[in-house]
Amino acid sequence: MILHGTQEIDQHGVLTIGGCRATDLAARFGTPLYVLDEACFRDNCRRYLAASRAAYENSDVAFASKALMTSAVVRICDEEDLWLDVASPGELLTAQRVAYPMSRTLYHGNNKSLEEIRLAVKAGVGLIVVDWLGELEQIEQVGAEAGREVPILLRLAPGVDPDTHHAIRTGQPDTKFGLSIQGEAADAGVAAALALPHVQLLGYHSHVGSQLLDLEAHAEAVVEMVQFAGRMAGKHGYSPAILNIGGGLGIRYTEKDRPPSFEEFHDQLVRTLTEQLRITGLEPPKLLQEPGRSLVGEAGTTLYTVGAIKHLDLPEGLQRLYVSVDGGLSDNPRPQMYGAVYECALANRMNDHADTECRIAGAHCETDTLIASAQLPMPRPGDLLAVPCTGAYCYSMASNYNRFQRPAMVLVNQGQADVIVERESPEDVIRMDRIPERFRSVEDTGKHA
Ligand code: PLP
After folding, report:
1. Residue 391: Cβ-neighbour burial (10 angstroms; 0-12, 13-18, 19+)
2. Contact at 8 Å (CB) between 95 and 120?
3. Span from the CA of 209 to the centroid of ligand 1 (angstroms)
4. 361-409 pLDDT, tens per residue?
5. Residue 13, burial from CB neighbour count under 10 angstroms (0-12, 13-18, 19+)
6. C-alpha–C-alpha distance, residues 248 and 208, integer Å
7. Which residue, by CA, sits nearest to atom 10 of ligand 1?
8. Cβ partners under 8 Å of residue 1, min gap 6
């Protein structure tokens, strides 16, 4: 297993994160447990922003909160001077509850309701990212009601098809997101936005995909966006003040994944941007980005307790060792959704020889393989399994499947561990259930627990 962030192995062969022994965390908070390495997360935020500003001074970085949103995480983003990308009333409310500066917040969504737009405008978000032409009319209506101009970016569909899982590709021609720049939609969007009195067009946005391990898709998107901006400058006399190129930089889930460093990524991105600005003669806009995974992914580790272990003799002399843990699909749907591949280790036996090939299975009522092929010391019930790189799109995509309770999350730093999300209780899981009054009462049925 690659050690990320502050992960170390102590003299007893136990994994430590943020100076906390994984075994102590599991004993104190239970498993499954999301562990968030504060120093790693903060360091990523700082290095990403610094790399962006070193390459292009007039730049800012928003954290894509869909990757991981909790109140404490949002506070960290604020302290690290990031902007925040939100995409639902729930994400907006979380930001508001911790008094996140709304002027540094962007509101996303490909199907915002009028009510959502009202909420975002009332909250005073810095930018609404407009996804389709009808939304411009909605924003005009809400802006008129509020008696002010609403600052927006137009989301462009640049027609760039990145090399990643199909479910996290967004910039290709056949996409539900944004206004196509190959067709008429984006041009029509610019014309409409400029004509509407309560819409203030500040620039363009695009996000082509996620977990991108090469630099090409971003570079192609920048070319398409700036070329489009150049055409619009010629046609409508409009130059963007902001260019937001989204998020998408990949992380090192396994040894095989080799993402570019933050510096390499920005050097290439800004080289392309500067070249295109020179060709089109546009004034350099502010550069905005909204990474999620690359800031928080490697800062998260999930701890599970090993339970059932089964040895199977399969046809043709094959053998399989199934090692079941106390979580799975409900706390990390990515293996099922995207065929995502993770590494793992026994956090209580980091120095034992990893000589056993096993399949890590979840505890749910389907074949929720967490890791198809893992190399571990022969596992025993009660061992602690650590799965790193679960900071992004795990808690935020978690469910109550099988009515499992969502795990707690602890923030670890310099030997201190603080709960930032409580473990759900069984009562939490049934809290929203209602039984129609016309049903017979439990007393009537004569059935008591
Ligand atoms: N911006 C938008 C519009 C997105 O849809 C996403 C992810 O889906 C992101 C930013 C963040 O992407 P990533 O976590 O890959 O950086």
Report:
1. buried
2. no
3. 7
4. 999 999 999 999 999 999 999 999 999 999 999 999 999 999 999 999 9
5. middle
6. 7
7. 247
8. 343, 344, 345, 386, 388
335 preceded by a cis bond (ω within 30 of 0): no
Q: Where are the beta strands (DSSP E) in 332-427?
A: 345-346, 356-361, 369-376, 384-388, 408-413, 416-421
What is residue 395's three-state secondary structure?
helix
Other CB atoms within 10 A of residue 389 CB? 25
CA distance 296 to 91: 17
Determine the distance from the C-alpha atom of residue 176 to the mean position of all C-alpha atoms in its chain, rounded to a whole number: 19
77 as an active site residue: the answer is: no
- Name the residue with tokens 């980005």: 289
Q: Is the pLDDT of residue 6 over 70?
A: yes
Can you tell me the distance from the alpha carbon of 335 to that of 339, in angstroms, rounded to the nearest whole number? Answer: 4
Q: Which of 87, 91, 97 is nearest to 69 (CA)?
A: 91
Q: Which positions ≥6 away from 426 have C-beta within 8 Å?
A: 405
Packing angle, helices 185-195 and 133-146, rounded to 10: 10
Taking only the tens place, the pLDDT of each residue in 312-344 is 999 999 999 999 999 999 999 999 999 999 999
Residues in contact with ligand 1 (CB, 6 Å cut-off): 64, 66-67, 85, 108, 207, 210, 246-248, 290-294, 392
pLDDT in tens, 20-73: 999 999 999 999 999 999 999 999 999 999 999 999 999 999 999 999 999 999
Q: Which two tokens stand for residue 411?
A: 């923030």
Distance CA 120, CA 127 (A): 9
Return the DSSP state at 4.
-
Distance between CA atoms of residues 161 and 173, nearest Å: 7
User: What is the rounded CA–CA span in Å between residue 343 and residue 123?
Assistant: 41
Pocket mutation for ligand 1, best pick of 105, 127, 207, 252 (most atoms within 8 Å of C-beta): 207
**Residue among 322, 247, 257 nearest 290 (CA):** 247
Residues 208 and 210: their CA atoms lie apart, in Å, by: 7
Q: How far is CA 444 from the centre of its chain?
A: 49
Q: Which of 93, 103, 91, 120 is CA-nearest to residue 60? A: 103
pTM for the model stands at 0.96
Contact call for residues 295 and 81 (beta carbons, < 8 A): no
d(CA 55, CA 265): 10
